[in-house]
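thought: user wants a sequence for this fold. calling inverse folding tool.
action: design(structure=
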């Protein structure tokens, strides 16, 4: 990060009141460093939704929303999705480099050896109703992991942080599959060490102890791709939540749980679930024009779920990749003529041709297609966000680890523009 120029802030009389450094990253917009602003001027900045605020420096992920570019540690998402496994991407995000064949073997082995959960953790599931939302269970059970690993909770120790990272990457899929098995009243499946990360998850989700489970490589590849595409996305709401929670020194399991809670919302990770619910609500291709009109009506809160993005004002590169996977999966499962999928593809066509969506650059986002793929894989709608959480866990941990290692790290403490009452007296009847 270099500091090559300054920005001078003047008052209404054109007198300089503050000189602010302008910082330059490797790529992307320059950043005005406002750290000295309050001290020098008594002013705060105001940026609800953080649309113009960089909250940290990071070396993990870069997004150019105008051009539709996404890089993990400098590599294009398109190339990573075509050429790497999810665990190679995890290594890249966590350690900064793609693994050598030897380090990949160690990394995979390390993850595999941590996929089982403590047997007592199964008791936590029993406390939930069978119809509990999987994200509610995830918040409870992943949070509970904090109580199981006191051996490695020194966040200042890199060794402890690495072990926590491995434990979380390894155990979250086991917990996600347990959420599903619990909801349908089937026994939990133990992990199988002979399988790849994704195959193991598919088996824990769909196998029963009574039968052999046959993997379908097209479906395994589809889920591998979903995980890679969701692995990280820079300072999104849940990652920022993880960083903020971690800035106080909270343990990694608590911080990742905070991320899971944030991801649950429909404007973020809940969107893929919302896409399927919306398709059910639309019901039939003939109703699409009516719903498109509703999405455009300012007085109607209805929005087309799976369209638009805060950062991408061009086609989301992840959506392009997910779209291709979506068509592969539908062809493999011979679902192209299924009414739900026909409806989804017709909605995509309508929105892409509609002047309102074109003018506002509201393209289908990754969750539009991942929702369709997950539905085709047989994953119930209310599990979609938990799958997103499984992919994003690595991103959350990589950011948490980067933050803790950053010597400039301080507790996150935003300020506010106060518009409540000024100081006043309590009415006399309360005395
Ligand atoms: N349907 C209809 N109109 C929309 C939509 C939509 N899905 N998204 C945005 N708009 C309109 C919005 O009404 C606004 O219009 P105007 O300028 O006339 O007020 C304009 O487009 C800009 O929208 P915004 O809400 O100011 O944009 P934002 O950056 O605050 O919101 C968003 C981004 C993703 C929350 C929003 O597009 C949305 O609600 N999309 C649907 C939910 C969704 O698919 N979320 C998943 C995001 S991708 C997954 C991830 O990375 O987490």
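)
observation: tool returned 431 residues.
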């Amino acid at each position: 990060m270099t500091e090559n120029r300054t920005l001078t802030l003047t008052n209404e009389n054109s007198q300089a009141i503050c000189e602010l450094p302008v910082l330059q990253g490797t790529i992307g917009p320059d950043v005005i460093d406002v750290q000295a602003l309050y001290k020098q001027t008594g002013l705060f900045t105001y940026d609800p939704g953080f649309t113009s605020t960089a909250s940290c420096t990071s070396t993990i992920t870069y997004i150019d929303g105008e051009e539709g570019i996404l890089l993990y540690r400098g590599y294009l998402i398109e190339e990573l999705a075509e050429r790497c496994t999810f665990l190679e991407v995890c290594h890249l995000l966590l350690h900064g480099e793609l693994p050598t064949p030897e380090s990949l073997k160690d990394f995979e082995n390390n993850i595999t050896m941590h996929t089982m959960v403590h047997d007592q953790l199964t008791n936590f599931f029993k406390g939930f109703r069978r119809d509990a939302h999987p994200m509610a269970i995830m918040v409870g059970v992943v949070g509970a992991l904090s109580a199981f690993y006191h051996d490695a909770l020194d966040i200042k120790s890199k060794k402890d942080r690495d072990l926590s990272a491995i434990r979380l990457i390894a155990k979250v899929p086991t917990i996600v599959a347990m959420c599903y098995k619990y909801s349908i009243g089937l026994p939990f499946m133990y992990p199988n060490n002979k399988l790849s990360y994704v195959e193991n998850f598919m088996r824990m989700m769909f196998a029963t102890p009574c039968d052999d489970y046959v993997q379908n490589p097209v479906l395994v590849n589809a889920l591998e791709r979903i995980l890679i595409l969701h692995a990280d996305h820079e300072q999104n709401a849940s990652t920022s939540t993880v960083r903020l929670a971690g800035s106080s020194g909270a343990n990694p399991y608590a911080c990742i749980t905070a991320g899971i809670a944030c991801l649950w919302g429909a404007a973020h990770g809940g969107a893929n679930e919302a896409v399927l619910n919306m398709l059910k609500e639309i019901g039939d291709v003939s109703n699409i024009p009516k719903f498109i009109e509703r999405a455009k009506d300012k007085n109607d809160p209805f929005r087309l779920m799976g369209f638009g993005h805060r950062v991408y004002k061009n086609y989301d590169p992840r959506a392009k990749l997910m779209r291709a996977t979506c068509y592969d999966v539908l062809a493999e499962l011979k679902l192209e003529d299924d009414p739900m999928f026909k409806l989804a593809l017709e909605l995509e066509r309508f929105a892409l041709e509609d002047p309102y969506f074109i003018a506002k650059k509201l393209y289908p986002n990754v969750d539009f297609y991942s929702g369709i793929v997950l539905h085709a894989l047989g994953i119930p709608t209310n599990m979609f966000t938990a799958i997103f959480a499984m992919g994003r866990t690595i991103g959350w941990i990589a950011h948490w680890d980067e933050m803790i290692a950053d010597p400039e790290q301080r507790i996150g403490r935003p300020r506010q523009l106060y518009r409540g009452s000024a100081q006043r007296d309590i009415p006399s009847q309360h005395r």
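thought: summarizing for user.
answer: Here is the designed sequence. The mean pLDDT is 94.
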